[in-house]
Structure formats: structure tokens, C-alpha cells
Amino acid sequence: MRSRYTAFARGDARYLMSTWHPGTAPAELSLDDATQWLGLEILDAPPVADDAKRGVVEFVARYRESSGTRGRIHERSRFVRQSGRWWYLDGVHS
Q1: What tens digit of pLDDT does each residue of 3-32 get?
Q2: 35-84, pLDDT tens digit by residue?
Q3: Which listed residue, 44, 45, 56, 79, has the most CB atoms within 10 A of its CB?
Q4: What predicted TM-score, i.e. pTM, was given to this entire model?
Q5: Quick one: which of 72, 76, 4, 77 has its CA closest to 36?
Q6: 89 CB neighbour count, 10 Å cutoff
Q7: 48: buried, middle or exposed (CB in 10 Å: 19+, 13-18, 0-12)?
Q8: How confident is the model at residue 2 (pLDDT cuts 50, 70, 90)?
Q9: 70: domain CATH number?
Q10: At 28, phi and psi to the nearest 5?
Q11: For the chain, how many structural domains are there in total?
């Protein structure tokens, strides 16, 4: 999750797409260069066993738009392990 946040902060859509599960990834991803990411707080990341196939991370990410408007994303993200690597599957915002 931290690497995906960093990719958002750096505007690295290529990395984000490479970590998104092919079955749920959008066809295209455009990022707003004017959005400034202000911080990431991991709220919950239950430990997973070495042979686990699924994981969950709950986080809050804060940002500021070019207009000065501040916002936050609160999401519970689901990840799946396939072929020895973790993929972002999807997330539920609250």
C-alpha cells in the first residue's frame, strides 16, 4: 500500500497499473498532476500468513487540490496474491 501511495504522490500511473490486478484494473488511468498528496496513515493491516492468498489494508490518504481544497480518501483495500506477488484488487471507500 505504501508503494502505491508513493506512486500516486509521484504521478507514476505506470507503476500503479503494474500493481493492479488485471481483472479489475481500469483500461486507462489518468492522474491529476495538480493534486498534492499530504500523507498516508495506515489504520489497519492485519498480518497474513506466508501462504495467504488475500490481504486487506485500511488507510486514510490526505491531499490538496490546486484550488486549495483539501480532502481525504478513506479506503479498505483488498489485495490478492497470485504467482508469488501481491496485486491491488479493489477498495471500498468510507
Answers
A1: 999 999 999 999 999 999 999 999 999 999
A2: 999 999 999 999 999 899 999 999 999 999 999 999 999 999 999 999 88
A3: 79
A4: 0.91
A5: 72
A6: 17
A7: middle
A8: very high
A9: 3.10.450.50
A10: -140, 155
A11: 1
Q: State the residue range of the domain holding 45.
A: 2-93
Q: 21-43 burial string, b = 16+ CB within 10 Å, else e?
A: eeeebeeeeeeeeeeebeebeee
76 in Cβ contact with 46 (< 8 Å): no
Q: What is the pLDDT of residue 58?
A: 98
What residues contact residue 33 under an 8 Å CB cut-off, 6+ apart? 11
Alpha-carbon distance 63 to 56, whole Å?
A: 22
Look up residue 83 and give its three cell numbers: 504467482
Strands (E), the chain: 36-44, 54-64, 70-82, 85-93
Q: Look at residue 1 in the predicted model and tell me its pLDDT.
A: 84
